[in-house]
Design brief:
Layout (H helix, E strand, L loop, with lengths): L1 H23 L5 E2 L2 H19 L6 E2 L6 E2 L14 H5 L2 H26 L4 H13 L1 H5 L4 H7 L1 H6 L10 H16 L3 H22 L5 H21 L1 H12 L9 H4 L6 H9 L14 H4 L5 H12 L3 H18 L7 H7 L13 H18 L3 H20 L5 E2 L9 H9 L5 E4 L14 H9 L23 H10 L3 H10 L2 E7 L7 E5 L7 E4 L2 E4 L2 H9 L9 E4 L7 H6 L7 E2 L1 E6 L2 E5 L8 E4 L7 E5 L2 E3 L2 E3 L3 E5 L6 E6 L2 H30 L1
Parallel strand pairs: 5-6, 9-10
Antiparallel strand pairs: 1-4, 2-3, 6-7, 8-11, 8-14, 10-17, 12-13, 13-19, 14-18, 15-16, 15-19, 17-18
Helix pairs in contact: 1-4, 4-5, 5-19, 5-20, 9-11, 10-17, 12-27, 16-19, 17-19, 23-24
């Protein structure tokens, strides 16, 4: 009977999810969310193309003058549902991805409610609120965040007291955490870990007849096992990700103002909470609606207040505490004393968007609402309340703020693409100097705006068409590239210098005119992507090196500036050879996106090879098979001194962090599977 009920629920929720998708137009159209348009579509296009060619996507040369691709969590390369993007065209995969996760969230939520004693209809209500609430719906604009949210109820299922201390529970919790991490957003992993840890302690406390040393010892052992296994399972992406954080603009965290971006104003929070059938057009929103917006409905709010009154005393205190703390932290910069919490609590300096703490508040509201429904005696009233809450959530979703287009919108290439490709015959970057994806500070609101944006060749749209860009969006930059560009963006003269040393042959910038046209010009004087020099100067201090770069006496065509001490060839020895001071174009062979090969003519003996690719740990150089280490040149790029009589030089990106992480992940999977089958075999034999 129980399995039949479960089957009926799964089937009914499938059709309910389909109805929600029709209500929000996700089935018929593709939502034109900013991040999907500028990041997810082109990046997934690139990843799929590389995998089809048998090349693992470790590096992306098309953004930020080169940046790690695998290490960027946002791309969710190892997240299992990302396979939709590998087997279907990207817009269709996005629609399938959204539908799948809505449905999966409903199933997880129902199982959680059933596991913790909620009756059938209360479990359905909890599943409905947590799946179709306005917070999750608005976050569907960011599929990595959207995917991370749904794993909270899945994790909590395994914390039942009669199951939690088993090996199977530890394994399932660790696997679920690893999958959530692979989904691509560390913020929701951080929040989930905090929540389930506190929840576990509370349940352990309630399970003890009296406090003793085992109260502290059991959770300590359990969580030590969970964390270690989680770290090993996720090591294949965790290690490269941590390395990227260390060498990116996020190293050491962010300043307070950056961390508090998109705080939830208290007045706005109250309006979201209390306005019935709220429409996003009714009042101005502070911050991005898809980040700061949420909705649970008036009926759900009233029911949650009723459920709070009749909740079990100890758990009522716990969920109330978590609810209030999450709301307080969501206020961010508007919350008094939040600076001290930000400074003292580990990890907060690395996270943005305080309003996303409401993710936990929504969960607590759903729990109280489900409890409130369970207290009601009349079944007809229960069904009526459930139906009213469902209608409220569907009506809110129907008034969604997203623009929509048909899938073929993403198929046609912008006309400007062909013009640029005809002009740039060799590898040369496009440089977008202005903010707002090349559109200045203009907002994309109407469908015509989006069409215009597509027609003028925006930065990340260059990725699927293999026209590189020095500026990207929402991808972590290496710290050296960021500092150099920030230094050289003060004046137009310095910007020209940036174009020269970064091989940015084509510059594009937005002109604020009535026709909102895009100005562009082809710079014929940039350095080649790979070039040779006969002069190099060495600097121990990055500060002095930056001063030298902006010095008018610095000639980027005749010398390169190396970070570090000279241990190869001195400037005097090079100059004595009398070779002309003009960089020469090298024959670059792109064996793959992670590998560059160069064939050198005899005249290059004793010279320097300069590569306009961002310096980053993991790049290896081989000269006729002998391994060399690259130097950081012109502050952010790479160079290597060429030995005599060298014919072939290869640059290969294969980071040790990835190799070590891959080994640990495979070992942990093998070990976990072996132990699981051994225990299963013993149980079967007994």
């Amino acid at each position: 009977m129980q399995s039949r009920t479960l089957l009926i629920f799964c089937l009914a929720f499938f059709f309910l999810t389909f109805g929600f998708a029709l209500t929000t137009s996700f089935i018929q159209w593709v939502p034109l969310a900013h991040d999907f348009f500028f990041t997810y579509h082109p990046q997934n296009h690139l990843i799929s193309e590389l995998l089809e060619k048998g090349v693992f996507p470790l590096w992306n040369p098309y953004l930020h003058c080169g940046t790690p691709l695998l290490a960027n969590l946002r791309e969710a390369i190892f997240y299992p549902p990302s396979l939709f993007f590998r087997f279907f065209e990207i817009p269709l995969a996005y629609q399938i991805f959204l539908f799948f996760h809505y449905y999966l969230c409903g199933i997880f939520s129902y199982f959680f409610a059933q596991a913790y004693g909620f009756r059938r209809l209360s479990s359905i209500l909890f599943s409905t609120i947590f799946t179709f609430n306005g917070f999750l719906f608005l976050h569907s604009a960011y599929f990595n965040q959207f995917a991370g949210i749904i794993w909270l109820p899945a994790l909590l299922i395994f914390f039942q007291r009669d199951f939690i201390n088993s090996y199977c529970a530890i394994l399932l919790i660790s696997i679920s955490l690893a999958i959530q991490f692979f989904s691509g957003n560390p913020f929701f992993v951080y929040l989930t870990l905090l929540f389930v840890f506190l929840f576990d302690l509370v349940l352990e406390f309630l399970n003890q007849s009296k406090l003793n040393e085992s109260f502290f010892l059991k959770p300590l052992k359990r969580w030590l096992s969970i964390i270690i296994l989680f770290l090993f399972l996720s090591a294949v992406q965790l290690f490269p990700f941590c390395e990227l954080v260390r060498f990116s603009t996020r190293q050491g965290g962010m300043i307070f103002a950056s961390s508090m971006l998109f705080s939830e104003p208290p007045k706005q929070f109250i309006r979201f909470l209390l306005s019935p059938l709220w429409s996003w057009q009714n009042f101005p929103i502070e911050g991005d609606l898809t980040i700061t917006g949420f909705y649970i409905g008036i009926f759900s709010l009233a029911l949650s207040l009723f459920g709070f009154k009749y909740f079990r005393k100890e758990l009522r205190y716990f969920f109330s505490f978590v609810l209030l703390i999450s709301i307080y932290l969501s206020f961010g910069i508007y919350a008094p004393g939040n600076y001290y919490l930000w400074a003292w609590i580990p990890g907060l300096k690395f996270l943005r968007f305080p309003s996303q703490w409401l993710f936990v508040a929504i969960f607590c509201f759903a729990v109280f609402s489900a409890r409130g429904l369970q207290i009601l005696k009349n079944n007809k009233i229960k069904w009526a309340v459930t139906f009213l809450i469902l209608i409220e959530l569907f009506l809110f979703a129907h008034k969604n703020p997203f623009g929509f287009v048909k899938r073929d919108f993403f198929h046609l290439r912008p006309s400007l693409i062909h013009e640029i490709r005809n002009q740039i015959k060799v590898f040369g970057r496009i440089n977008h100097q202005k903010e707002g994806f090349g559109l200045g500070k203009e907002k994309l609101e109407t469908q015509n705006d989006w069409l215009y944006a597509k027609s003028v060749m925006l930065p990340n749209l260059s990725v699927p068409y293999h026209i590189p860009s020095t500026q990207g969006y929402a991808v972590a930059e290496t710290i050296w590239k960021y500092q150099l560009f920030d230094t050289l963006s003060d004046s137009q003269d310095l910007v020209r210098l940036w174009n020269i040393i970064s091989a940015s042959a084509f510059q594009m910038f937005y002109r604020k005119e009535k026709d909102r046209s895009l100005a562009s010009y082809l710079n014929q004087k940039v350095l080649p992507y790979a070039s040779s020099f006969n002069k190099a100067s060495f600097y121990d201090s990055d500060e002095f090196l930056l001063r030298r770069i902006i010095d008018k006496k610095f000639n980027p065509y005749s010398e390169i500036l190396i970070s570090g001490k000279s241990n190869l060839i001195t400037e005097k020895e090079i100059s004595f050879r009398g070779i002309e001071d003009q960089p020469m174009l090298l024959n670059t062979i792109f064996k793959s996106i992670n590998k560059r090969e160069f064939k050198l003519p005899p005249t290059f003996n004793g010279q320097w090879l300069y590569l306009a690719e961002c310096f980053y740990p993991g790049w290896k150089i081989y000269m006729d098979g002998l391994k060399k280490n690259p130097f950081r040149a012109n502050f952010a790029f790479m160079a290597v001194g060429i030995d005599k009589n060298v014919k072939d030089i290869t640059f290969l990106y294969l980071p040790f962090s990835f190799i070590m992480g891959l080994v640990l992940t495979l070992l942990s999977l093998f070990t976990a599977a072996s132990i699981f089958f051994i225990k299963l075999k013993k149980r079967y034999e007994s």
